[in-house]
Specification:
With 209 residues, the protein is mostly beta strands. Helix content is 4%, strand content 47%. It is built from 2 helices and 16 strands. The radius of gyration is 17 Å and the shape is globular.
Length: 209
Amino acid sequence: MYAFSKVFPLAFSALALGLPAELAERADTQYTDTFDDLATSVVVPQLFPVGLYHGIQYGGAVVLRPIEGAASVVPHSKPQQAGAAGPIDLLQLGVLTLNTFYQLKAGPGVKSFDLKSFWFGLGTDTGTTEGLAQGGTVSVVGFDQTGKQVPVVSLSYAPEGAQNQPLVFATLPDTYKNLVNVSIGVATSEPVSERTYIALDDVIHINHS
């Protein structure tokens, strides 16, 4: 059965709490992006980009439905997850180089967003969802509404097997608020970072409009 994406309107009474007017007038909505309601293909997932989803533009991401029994990593909430792949993708952020990466940007009508958490894993990029799980590190880099970069978060993935490996949970610090752009990319991996894809699932974010 498909897991439904969860949407939670956040009740806000900012005026009663004495918060600034710009916060009092802001509408906040929380989403859990499961990617389960998006179209895809097991054979050619690269033809099915995630695109704009729950107010966030997922750059570099496609919709994946892993092959049962032959997948490198499997979704946290089945049957689908997002995947970022591309051996020629390079993103240079100061001294940090990300080989394969997502870029999450605030979409139309969204002023900024808080990135709360997600599940992730690493696998070989074979052009399909069949492959081997890989160990490595992922870096998360965010920029707020003023263009200021928030501190980089480094996350490790260490699968215990070669296939059908579970994703791991990552929580972002409180600094990942009021963002307009977040990059999530492979910093290091085994054996070759340029041939590693990142699986994402159950991405929780709060949109501010």
